[in-house]
Amino acid sequence: MGLKHIAFDAQPAVGAKPDEECPRRIIKKKQCANVNLKLNFQRLCQIREEEEKQQRQKALSANLAEIATIRTLTLADTIDRLANMRLKERGVWQQRHPSAPIMRRKSPLLPDPKPQNQEIQPAASHKDDVADNKNAHRGRRIRRASL
Question: Which residues does the annotated region (Disordered) include (predicted)?
Answer without folding.
Answer: 90-147
